[in-house]
Methyltransferase domain-containing protein (Alkalicoccobacillus porphyridii), 268 residues
Amino acid sequence: MDSDVAKKRAEIPGSASSILDARTLHTSHKRLSELVTEGMSVLDVGCGTGTITKGIAEIVGSRGRVVGIDQNPAFVETANESALDLPMLSFMEGDVYDLPFENEFDMVTSARVLQWLSDPVRALRTLIAAAKPGGKIIILDYNHEKIKWEPEPPESTKQFYRAFLKWRADAGMDNEMADHLEEMYGRVGLSQIHTHIQDEVVTRSDPDFMKKINIWADVMTSRGKQMVRDGFYGESELTLAEKQYREWVQFEARSQCMYLRAVEGSKQ
Ligand SMILES: C[S@@+](CC[C@H](N)C(=O)[O-])C[C@H]1O[C@@H](n2cnc3c(N)ncnc32)[C@H](O)[C@@H]1O
């Protein structure tokens, strides 16, 4: 499948950056927060607005080096503004398929990015090239087929979700990325491969329940429009799905679990 289609569908509309802005290293990339230590050099590819990257820089300190890369210039600009007080941290615009680094970093990470690519193995090879020999690669990603809601959401939500996954698969994206990482790591020659469960669970008693579970309302508003434009969903169905999802969130929803895995491996 044409990777330009994936590239276009992966673009995050400006309105959706609030989901990225709310993430931190400790809440949203836990395994990485356990691995990063003072003085390390770390590359974060597909860093979004850089909130996780900034957390990495705070740990590595002034003897370390952290670089964040994203293809979205608006995200890089926001990230740069937040990095002014951290001289070891820099952000740049760039494409995961074309990274300007070789054998430079102790650790290379890419969180929630490979799921949006049509050729994740090619991306993984460029991430590995950027790591030093003996360096670590750590990818964080979802299996969207394994999401769980309690209780079941309305039929219109499930229909939207199925269309969303179909729209992604049509662009060559892997909806089960999390469960294919280990096999990919083996194929490209990484060693010491370990998988960590990092599921994102939110329940009604959590203070940020509404913000987190409304991720699908945000997806309906942002990606839904793209799906309508691409002929994968009807405009009236989208309006109904969004209305019924918001009602379900307000009155019925108890929990949501998004299946997320961090997979680490070492470069020989
Ligand atoms: C879902 S966001 C994840 C952001 C952040 N890593 C996090 O975990 O919150 C995916 C990010 O990958 C970026 N991205 C998608 N395709 C990319 C590519 N080919 N090269 C670089 N960045 C890319 C997007 O612009 C977006 O910021």
Q: What stands out?
A: The chain has twelve helices and ten strands. The first helix runs from residue 3 to 10.
